[in-house]
């Protein structure tokens, strides 16, 4: 497993003082993780990990990257919280 220390530390910093939107997004992400086959235990356990990437979930869910789940399970809940620039074409 390759760890991105900048991304991990950024998520934990966000966890220490999240905005209301970041809290809601983290709750939605953790809800998805609670039903995932890659979770290492119960989501109520503060030490629970993602077995796919090895990250502690209670920090990872505060990631500021769109769909940072290695299994791509967060993309639907992430869409309203991330702004995307649409590529408009004439065709």
Plain-language structure description:
It contains four helices and no strands. By secondary structure, it is mainly alpha-helical. The longest helix has 15 residues, at 20-34. The model has no long low-confidence stretch (mean pLDDT 89). It has helices spanning 5-16, 20-34, 57-60, 75-78.
Distance between the termini: 42 Å
Q: Quickly count the helices.
A: 4
Total strands? 0
Average pLDDT level:
89
C-alpha-based Rg, rounded: 14 Å
The percent range for helix content is 25-40%
Q: Briefly note the structural class of the backbone.
A: mainly alpha
Question: Based on CA inertia axes, which overall geometry fits?
Answer: globular
Strand content: under 5%
Largest sheet: none
Order of H and E elements: HHHH
Low-confidence stretches: none
Concise structural overview:
With 91 residues, the chain is mainly alpha-helical.
Give the secondary structure arrangement, pairings included.
Blueprint: H1 5-16, H2 20-34, H3 57-60, H4 75-78
Using brief descriptors, characterize the structure shown.
91 residues, mainly alpha, 4 helices, 38% helix
